[in-house]
Amino acid sequence: MNTPAEIFARSPKPTLGVEWEVALVDPQTRDLVARGPEVIAAVNTAHPEVHLEKEFLQNTVELVTGICDTVPQAMEELARDLSFVRAAAEERGLRLWASGGHPFSDFRKNPLGDKDSYKEIINRTRYWGQQMLLWGTHVHVGVSHEDKVWPIINALMTTYPHLLAISACSPGWDGLDTGYASNRTMLYQQLPTAGMPYQFGSWAEWQSYMRDQSISGVINHTGSMHFDIRPASKWGTVEVRISDAASNLRELSAIVALTHCLVVHYDRLWEAGEPLPTLQPWHVAENKWRGARYGMDALVITSRETDERWVKDELADLVEELTPLARELGCAAELARILEIIEHGAGYERQRRLFEETRSWNPAVDLACDELAAGHPLV
């Protein structure tokens, strides 16, 4: 069987694209409402310039930026589009909500989107796939040549818990406090094509892998590989899918800024002939788990010699190290917001605190809705 080679589009500049998944909830019950396609259609009719996508579940609206040069440009576009989606939702008596996972909604009562690929995933994965009440932030950064892609991805995997900790906002599931900062991370890896990417050594090795997946029928069933970080060859980008869906634009901007800076930083190291950092696969897996479990309180493995540091200290050092590059990329203010998350806590901490105070997840759902409307963290 001859499988066509995957052609990487090659981006001449480190451009940026952001996909942000938000959902619709009933303001009385706080449960999810499956009216996403209706809201999308309303916005597209009134504002055809806005790019929205249907998602895995009908309760979800995905906001998608165009090709942006800077984080502020992407955030401005998302803020504009969000205002149109909010207006359409409010006209229907609904609120917009965003987090990595809903704390009590029943997955059995949330209908799928109408894409054939989504239906096929459920046909294959059954119970495990049906649980995907999950929302994420996906950040695309342009890369100029496919030879850089896997060295950059392998280096980014050393910062997995960093990107996860600042975004983690899914502590609740099925009415329970899971004890995790990002329960979404643990649930999503149940899919057979999701989770950590293999540490491919070259583009040719990746092509061989994808050829195998095509021959064996895996890609035909799922449409693509849903790795936590993957090449998006059609766009010439590295797509980073680690982060929970942020509940507000301010924290989202910090997540996107760190992602943008890290990709460009590793790209330039590669161009200069410098070695890019890597960790053993077992260390990467352990760091992913620690980030999901402990969030901002994670002790993470930082070297192949198994040195460890607190992720808050790591994040503070990354902000300092990357600030000159952030100034060049036009996102220094957004990168500095990571320091606010270090000081005041991430989304999962705010949600958990309300649950512990009230023994109900309703205030946590309200909080996420309020933060989405305000554009910044509350409480």
UniProtKB/TrEMBL annotation:
Keywords annotated in UniProt: ATP-binding, Ligase, Nucleotide-binding
Keyword ATP-binding: yes
GO MF entries: ATP binding; glutamate-cysteine ligase activity
Protein's GO biological process: modified amino acid biosynthetic process
Pfam families: GCS2
Classification via InterPro entries: GCL_type2/YbdK_subfam, GCS2, Gln_synth/guanido_kin_cat_dom, YbdK
Catalytic activity: L-cysteine + L-glutamate + ATP = gamma-L-glutamyl-L-cysteine + ADP + phosphate + H(+)
Top-level division of the source organism's lineage: Bacteria
EC number: 6.3.2.2
Family: Belongs to the glutamate--cysteine ligase type 2 family. YbdK subfamily.
UniProt-listed HAMAP family: Glu_cys_ligase_2
Protein name as annotated: Putative glutamate--cysteine ligase 2
